[in-house]
Known about the structure:
Layout: H1 2-14, H2 17-20, E1 31-37, H3 44-48, H4 57-63, E2 65-71, H5 79-88, H6 92-95, E3 101-104, E4 109-112, H7 136-139, H8 156-163, E5 170-174, H9 177-184, E6 189-194, E7 199-201, H10 212-219, E8 230-231, E9 262-263, H11 272-277, H12 280-296, E10 306-312, H13 314-322, H14 327-350, E11 356-361, H15 370-375, E12 382-384, H16 392-402, E13 409-413, E14 416-419, H17 421-426, H18 431-443, E15 448-453, H19 454-458, H20 466-473, E16 483-487, E17 491-493, H21 510-513, E18 514-521, E19 527-529, H22 538-546, H23 560-563
Parallel strand pairs: 1-10, 1-11, 2-19, 5-6, 5-10, 12-17
Antiparallel strand pairs: 2-18, 3-4, 6-7, 8-9, 11-18, 13-14, 14-16, 15-16
Amino acid sequence: MKNTLLVAISMLCSLPVTALYADNLKQPPKLIVQITVDALRGDLLNRYRHNFGPNGFNYLINNGVYYKNAHYHHGNTETIVGHASLATGAPPSVHGMVGNIWFDDSQSRIVYNIEDANYNLLTQGAGVNKKTEIDSTQAAAKSQGRSPSNIRVSTFSDEVVMASAGIGKAFAVSVKDRGAVALAGHSGKAFWFDKATGTFVTSDYYYETYPNWVTAWNKQQLPAKYSGTVWQPSIKNDSFTLKDLQQKSKLDLAGFGSQFPHPYGKKEDKYFTTKLTLSPAGDELTADFAKTLLVKEDLGQDNITDFLSVSFSSNDYVIHVFGPSSQEAEDNLVRLDSTLAEFFKQLDSQVGLENTLIVLSADHGAPESADYAHSLGIDHASYFAIDTLINDDIKATVKKRFGLADKVFRTYAHPYVYLDKDYIASKNVKLADVQTFVAELIRKQQGVYAAYAETDILRNQVTPSRIARLVSNNHFEGRSGDIYIVLNERGYVNDFDGLTVSSTHGSVWQHDTHVPIIFAGYGIKQQAIYRAVTPYDIAPTLALSANTTIPSGATGQGLVEVLQK
């Protein structure tokens, strides 16, 4: 018996490692598809799934690993912050994208997260039209150029490209420029929808000239097919899940209307392309472009893993304008469900779903509108007038205490108050003393839940709590401000080009941090998982599945239910 055992051990030791573990390892997927539904709060799929078909969201839910308790662990739940976290597997304290905008000391101005004057858009006349742009963060940019240069660590897409010496392909598509650029990383290729020209564009960071297939797609002028049409509900009135209780808070933008039907207007209307992005049309155009890319770039056609990110932005805009419990929000997701079903059909035809690893998540959640909350007795939901935050009393108190003039307050860029550090130094006043004093004054303002001084964050002297941890995870020195402000639960900052919108995210509260995570395809078995996980776990899981290096700054962990055979 002893000799038999020794012989067996000897035979095992002579085998290659790959042979020993072959039964426990998966071959890397031919294609990884990362789907991000902007502002898809964690409960919304279950709320509306009875109106979904079998081959879109329900394909993922019924055939995949569904993590129902996934939360971001950073405070500023905005688009670029979430997308960069999905790409890197890390919080903003690591990747550096602390908000859609921040104050740049070197330029003495507010900057947009991916603006880059070193690179230009390839399309003549493309870029942000500040007269019609409702996204005030994009309007803050001084340059039309875009690049991922501000992302301070590697992304999963970078690792795909590096692991194969550039043979593995990585692409990202979105209506929003920041949704595409973040997921494409430094080594992939990004395309986004340009409202000025009604085309998908990119910058010369990625290409010197457009691939022929992009030029051909744009020449079809697919957005024009919506000219003169309306967004009608695809759901019968008696089939909507909820009674619409938020008619008062819906925004009528440029004649788009506050209830069905919503007319797109003629293509000559200066707000025509904006209206497309506020509806299912934006997602339909994004999916059509992504399907064309899938074919023309031959993704998933060899044994080297390729990567495709598709970020669907319409849900976010619809929630901003109409609210997450509106009929518009439900109908938009039902239409996205059909769009996903067609996209998955294309994936199956070209690559095979068994060869494709799909992951779906969101960049952040969203709160219910104040109007909806009020109708249900939640009276504390309110809009916060940010221009009253640094009031005359605070300015006078700071002047009395330190002898500092009003100019000590440079600006507010959600969620940060920025002070003039050079001015403070010129007065021989300690910055830490001013930060702590101002934070205490702000903390006493009506509507403010908490205020954290940068000096306390850097010294790890904040009171231990979930909220304090999220605030600390959002801090990146040189970009984050001097005081981080946490508003009361359901306290909304309305900064949508001066418009009072229905709902706005960006808080530490769980309605903004909670998102779904679902992995499907690639031979994955159906499971529902209720333990706490985080979207930072996605990038490491993808890296382990593809046998690449985990992104350099990742703090997340590989999810065993996806990785096990």
